[in-house]
Amino acid sequence: MIPCKSTCLMYQEGCHKTCPVWRQQQKKRSEEYRRKLTYLKEYNEICSTVVSQLKRMSCHRTYF
């Protein structure tokens, strides 16, 4: 579904393919998605490292 369909006064079937406003919205969504994906990848790596370190610590503790 095209969100501008109900709000754009100049809406016509297929107009989103050439509409500069639509392209700008899509570009903004794409950039936001990339930022979120980068953030999630970075924090997943950090969390994985911390979990790995904690697992190693807990293994060593059981030997004491």
Notable traits:
64 residues, mainly alpha, 0% strand
Protein described:
With 64 residues, the chain is mainly α. It has one domain (20-64). The chain is built from one helix and no strands. The longest helix is centred in the middle third of the chain and has 43 residues, at 20-62. The model has no long low-confidence stretch (mean pLDDT 82).
Estimated share of beta-strand residues = under 5%
Global geometry: rod-shaped
Average pLDDT taken over every residue = 82
| Helix vs. strand class | mainly alpha
Work out the helix count: 1
Give the low-confidence spans.
none
Oligomer: single chain
Overall helicity: 55-70%
The largest β sheet comes out as:
none
Order of helices and strands: H
Count of separate structural domains: 1
Number of strands: 0
**Rg over CA atoms:** 23 Å
C-alpha termini separation? 61 Å
